[in-house]
Amino acid sequence: MPVFHFQRFAALPLAFALAACATTQTAPPPPAPPKASAATGEVMVAAANPLAVEAGLNVLRKGGSAVDAAAAVQAVLGLVEPQSSGLGGGAFMTYYDAATKKVVAYNGRETAPAGATPDMFLQDGKPLSFPAAVTSGKATGVPGAVAMLAMAQAQHGKLAWKDLFGDAERLADEGFVVSPRLAGMIAGPFPQSQTPDAKAYFTKPDGQRYQAGDVLKNPAYAASLRKIAAEGPKAILEGALAEAIVAKVAQGPLPGTMSLADLKAYRPKAGDAVCGPYRIYVVCVPDAPSSGAALLEALGILANTDIAERGPADPQAWFLFTQASRLMYADRDRYFGDPDFTPVPIEGLLDPAYVAQRAKLIGEVAGPAPAPGTPRGAGALAPDATKEPGGTSHFVVVDAQGNVVSMTTTVESIFGTGRMVGGFFLNNQLTDFSWSPQNADGTQAANAVAPGKRPRSSMAPAIVLDREGKFVAAIGSPGGNSILAYNLKALVAILDWKMSVEDAFKLPNLVARGDSFASEPDRYAPGVVDALAAKGIVFKGSGGEGSGLHGVKLTPQGLQGGADDRREGVAKGF
């Protein structure tokens, strides 16, 4: 059986770091001829809205870098897809430098204010209702997406920061066409779409709500972008916008404690990506509190199976996928949090012996929910009660030099808290903490609330390399807790089954967590659903928020991009 090692390397060329594990991997079956894709080119942007893709491509046409384009993409997404991400949210970015073959992970996750307490989402000892918590001032963490992008752009940008927001400013001033997905969110039964700020923004002068095809203007957003272009992240973390954020968070009901000092103290992070081999490849993801390492654990488990010799029409392939997912989630839910507060035993979770031990639990049928294992370095932690509702967006950019951005970005749930300042929504990221922070004996959950702490995230933007450190693929998805399952499906399909990016994304999503199995029965080959049911896997629902996979892979014909057909995204290149 293959041995699964991992390494953190931002500071080392990948070819050097991979030498230690080059002899431990088994080769996959011969690759099938790659399928053609309409999205090809020497540069590529794949994102959840065509307007954001065009903004990124415009930056690349001007000679900008992948990170330059990422700033432009995010600025437009925050305007045209505000239900998913924005200036008031956070993000994780995995970045590949083609010249050095180094991978760096950027952490723009929000932080809890100094006044946060472990019981802040409890009332009379019981968790708050979701509608009350998600729209409260307590839910907002210090936003980090803009600060993270500014840090990465200062290190890897080619154009001036001030020149990256023109398309977004123009669309905000002149108006953009409301998409069907945004229109559905505006009209949907979400607590955030019913807040005073959301009603004011999404209601036309005639009293009707905006619908698909209507033109929506946001001059306040344009003004915020002009400040960000001129001042960088200080425009949000200090000054008038920061004061507006603090005032909005302090409003009732359930006001939060965020202060100007909390905003000014925010710092994004850049550090080693966590990278592990999968067969002849290496997959790199951000470190905790991202759950990327859990994705590597699932790949390690699958490396101990014959899933690569099977395919999407084989029920056993999906059974193996299901069982690996359940084992992954059991460990992720118990051990992952902010490593600055609670050690996350990533080395133990990815240790070859531990991964092989977990793989032996797969069995012949789906039994009871697997318990978390006991990896080396694991502490005594309480069971987790994190809710993590859906929101979020993912995009990939590849520039002319071969540098790659894989970035997952979010305001957490639909329209964040539903509270707005400066034309953008504030995140509800602090509801990503465990709402039941400890057991009766006082044992803490890894993801319990604490001042200055970053909540755990399922976001796991991935970049795949070959053993020589050359770019192979980049993928990622939104989806709340389901992100890891969506990403795992895409990686297995692209790397093991040699599918095109688009075809990999079209495969059914299967989210197996604990005793819950959710999927899309109509997307399977004939007979697969019945065969899985015979093994104890009966689907109930589709797994919460749908996927929004976006990705790019390198083929002999050039870059091939893909966008999930469940959303409105596109992949385009030139």
Tell how many strands the DSSP assignment holds.
23
Estimated radius of gyration: 22 Å
How are the strands ordered across the major sheet? 1-11-12-17-18-21-22-2
Main beta sheet strand tally, sense and closure: 8 strands, antiparallel
Helix content: 25-40%
Strand content is 15-25%
Net shape: globular
Distance between the termini: 42 Å
Poorly predicted tracts of residues: 1-5, 9-38
What count of helical segments does DSSP give?
19
> Which class of secondary structure composition applies to the elements?
alpha+beta
Task: Give average pLDDT, whole number.
Answer: 91
Notes on the structure:
The protein is of the alpha+beta class and 574 residues long. It has a domain of 249 residues. It has 19 helices and 23 strands. Strand 21 and strand 22 form a beta hairpin. The longest helix has 21 residues. The relative contact order is 0.20.
Summary of the model, kept short:
The protein is α+β, with helices and mostly antiparallel strands and 574 residues long.
List the helices and strands and how they pair.
Layout: E1 7-8, H1 14-18, E2 40-41, E3 44-47, H2 50-61, H3 66-80, E4 90-97, E5 102-108, E6 122-123, E7 126-127, H4 130-134, H5 145-156, H6 166-174, E8 176-177, H7 180-187, H8 196-202, E9 215-216, H9 219-231, H10 234-237, H11 239-249, H12 260-264, E10 269-272, E11 274-278, E12 281-285, H13 292-303, H14 315-335, H15 346-349, H16 352-359, E13 393-398, E14 404-410, E15 420-421, E16 424-425, E17 462-466, E18 471-476, H17 483-496, H18 501-506, E19 510-513, E20 516-519, H19 528-534, E21 550-555, E22 558-563, E23 570-573
Antiparallel strand pairs: 1-11, 2-22, 3-13, 3-23, 4-5, 4-14, 5-10, 6-7, 8-9, 11-12, 12-17, 13-14, 15-16, 17-18, 18-21, 19-20, 21-22
Helix pairs in contact: 2-3, 3-5, 3-6, 6-9, 13-14, 13-16, 13-17, 14-19
